[in-house]
Amino acid sequence: MAQVTTLDKPQPVVKVSRPTLSVGLISLLGIICVTSLVLYRAQPPAAVPATAPPTEFASGRAMQHLQRLALTPHPLGSAEHDATRDYIVQTLNTLGLDPQIQKTTGINQKLTNPVTAGMVENIVARLKGTDNHQPILLVSHYDSVSTGPGASDDGASVAAMLETARALKVSAPLKNDVVFLFTDGEEAGLLGANAFVAEQPATAVGAVLNFEARGSSGPAYMFETSRGNEHLITALAQAAPRPAASSLMYEVYKLLPNDTDLSVFKQAQWPGLNFAFINQSTHYHTQLDNIENIDERSLQQQGSYALALARGLGNTELTRTTRDAVYFDLLSALVVRYPASWVMPLTVLMTLAVLAVVGLGLKKKRLRMTGIGWGVLALLASMGATWLSVSLVWWLVSAVHRQYRLLAGDTYNSALYLVSFVALTAAVTIALYALFLKRVAMLDLWAGALVGWLLLLIPAALLLPGSSYLFTWPLCFSLLALGLTLAVEAQADARAGRLPLLFLGATVGAVLFIPVVQLLFVGLTVSKSGLVMLAVALLLGLFVPQINLMTMRRQWLLPAGLLLLSLSFIAAGSMTAGASKSRPQRDSIFYGLDANTGHAVWASTDAQADVWTAQFLPQATRRNMAEFFPLRTPELLAAAAPAAQLAAPNVELLADQQQAGVRSLRLKITSPRRAPIISIGVESDGEVQGTMLNGKRLELIPAGARPGSAHQWGLRYYALPAEGIELTLETKSQEPLMLKVVDQSYGLPALPGVVYQPRPAHLIPAAVPFTDSTLVSRSFTL
Q1: HSE-up (13 A, CA, CB side) for residue 480
Q2: What does the radius of gyration of the chain's CA atoms come to, in whole angstroms?
Q3: Are strands 136-141 and 178-183 parallel, antiparallel or unpaired?
């Protein structure tokens, strides 16, 4: 027989049946089964072969396009970019869609100084509907960065749209038009999307579906919506096969400094949804973003969204609402949604339910207030200990494996660390609860954990209402389980037949929380594991009854086993931390020639030279490299280099006029060596009052938002045409205007008599804009 004591006034001894070892084992197996089911359902759907019926989306057919789209890097302004454009146009022509090219100057003035602009070529194709109300706009970008072929970002989405266009073309006509927009210059700063919106009427689009990627695999999430999203979430719920979506994702995404083309469309007040798969972010913007590494299942899910929603929205009379929804998928089988206006009433209801259940327990003398207080403390203590222990372990791991710092906070073997940190969190949490259970009654700890959940629900509902569902529904079902437990006779609490009841709330929590933990770990990267594991510790607070059953006979067996499992996976991570061809390290190098002095340098953003960059950087030192970066003064690793015979950028003064105290200079800026990118910085004290680019008036960035001197102004232009660009600068100062102009071409220069070894297989270019580039700088005084 067992006697339970508390830290406050002793309770009467309650005789209960002591659980057998099998009850604890059943509890453990139940947790494993629930976790396995949730993880299995979180996977993307199976790929569909090219032999599928023509009206279906088949990733096998889309992969045939991707083979052509992801051959090489194709950044804006490169010959490979033009080849990619031509392939898309040719494919659309073959489908009979009569694509048009919108060639214009795209400008993004929302970025901080310098202004970003470029010559873009958006590809637009329209599939006519029978009774068009407002067109559905499907969007992906076809340019890549210079450091990767862009198989996932955004080649997979382009391929998915081409396959979607084919499937729609052979299907029954829709009511609304479907417009396929392949934007240009997204990687340069959303230039194509800005150009498209600038030339469209304000109400031209009924809904935008934007498709992106930040990795090579994983489920395709619907992670962002526009305001007033209730009708779009309803369409998603009704049409999307195997949906992966939650309003929590959008709440988190809003806190991040990230943008996609949808940001531009939302600014234009166009309703829309954003989709992306994000696993294996170590491949993002690198040579690993290739056809070999793409997960065809992710492409299948992305394309199935495109086709299903195009059909669903294409046959709907689109009406805009101002109502937002709270939404989440259940095991990727259905989307639960309800109006955001329900959040506060549900929170009040949960508050009353907590008070009612606690009141019932107090009335039946099965709960004590001090015990509940210790339960709240146990929950908070487990979360604090989790954050501290996981953060400390990751600090030690990253101190030992310094190469992890070169991977933007992530690792190639991050799945090993995920298992390790979940096991460590479980070990710490279960050990703490086992200690509390020696002095505090299980029901008190359980009730205290639920009070802690309520204390988190209230600020979530007020500050991040889209995340409130994550606390509301596990709390609701856990309160139901606790209330029923309190209502039955005490002797029945520990019987095996009560296990389904005890699992009720915990299972709901697991179904909702486990995908969130996986998503946050991938999205925030392993470097933020301490923060992510707080969610695991919080979830385990719902499993207090199971922890009690699993630790009652052999208190430390389970925590010790979990700790051993955690250490084993840490060791596995260490053994697989080395660089290889499939898991390469990154480095950077660029060549810079200062045409004013004739001096040249090799320079790198790396902390130190490695086995390959050492050939460029013998006896390198850190020095200011402002001559190659207008408006910036970066400290980089640099060494002298032979001066190449490279033509410098040129500025031609076309007009110099004075009117009402304002000096207006019209300039023609060219790159005689045909570099695709040019950066311009005004670095004199004469404040720029206004600017025009290729005849378009630019919005002047407020002086307080500019780096350095309040008078400085800059422009970075992509896909510079052979004839150059016209730039007008207006200033009130009568002092000479000083310009720094730097043009940038892809690839390192060929230097006479100098031979450099190619990169070894375990190294790839770092994902920075000027890696493996040639920069030529020249200053002008006008």
Answers
A1: 14
A2: 30
A3: parallel
- What is d(CA 120, CA 452) in angstroms, rounded to the nearest whole number? 53
Give residue-wise pLDDT tens across range 374-394.
Answer: 999 999 999 999 999 999 999
Burial class (CB within 10 angstroms; exposed 0-12, middle 13-18, buried 19+) of 370? middle
* Range name among 7-16, 627-636, 669-678 with the lowest pLDDT average: 7-16
- 224 DSSP 8-state letter: E
Measuring CA to CA, which residue among 203, 201, 189 is closest to residue 120? 189
DSSP H helices in 257-342 = 261-267, 296-314
CA dist., res. 726 & res. 717, Å (int): 11
Contact (CB, 8 A) for 687 and 731: yes
Phi and psi at 702, nearest 5°, equal -55, 145
Residue 574 phi, psi (nearest 5): -65, -40
Section 393-422 average pLDDT? 91
Alpha-carbon torsion, ordered 768, 772, 773, 774, to 10 deg: 140
Q: Do 314 and 176 contact (CB within 8 A), yes or no? A: yes
List the end-to-end C-alpha distance of the chain, in Å, as a whole number: 95
DSSP letter at 270 equals -
Whole-Å CA distances, 177 to 203, 296, 316, 676: 14, 28, 11, 36
CA distance 655 to 635: 37
- Phi and psi at 210, nearest 5°, equal -105, 135
Tell me how far apart the alpha carbons of residues 133 and 142 are, in angstroms, rounded to a whole number. 28
Lowest-pLDDT range of 318-322, 328-332, 753-757: 318-322
Spell out where 109-218 has E strands: 115-127, 136-141, 178-183, 207-213
Helix (H, G, I), strand (E, B) or coil at 101: strand
DSSP assigned state of 190: S
Exposure on the CB side of residue 267, measured as CA atoms within 13 A: 15
DSSP per-residue letters across 455-523: HHHHHHHHH-GGGTHHHHHHHHHHHHHHHHHHHS-GGGTT-GGGHHHHHHHHHHHHHHHHHHHHHHHHH
Q: What are the Cα distances from residue 290, in Å, to 66, 72, 674, 701?
A: 10, 9, 28, 38
Whole-model pTM over 0.85: yes
Q: What is the secondary structure of 653-691 as a DSSP string?
A: EEEEEEETTEEEEEEEEE-TT--SEEEEEE-SSS-EEEE
Q: Is 22 helix (H, G, I), strand (E, B) or coil?
A: helix
Helix 230-239 to helix 296-314 angle, to the nearest 10 degrees?
Answer: 120
Q: What is the pLDDT of residues 628-657, one digit of tens each?
A: 999 888 999 999 999 999 999 999 999 999
Tokens of 590: 């660029």
List Cβ neighbours of 726 (8 Å cut-off, separation of 6 or more). Answer: 654, 666, 667, 668, 669, 692, 693, 694, 695
Burial class (CB in 10 A: 0-12, 13-18, 19+), 7: middle
Q: Name the amino acid, one letter, at 83.
A: A
Q: How far apart are CA 189 and CA 393, in angstroms?
A: 37
CA distance 150 to 213: 10
Q: Is the distance from CB of 471 to CB of 453 less than 8 angstroms?
A: yes
| Mean pLDDT of all residues in 576-582 | 91
Indicate the pairing of strand 272-277 with strand 713-718: unpaired
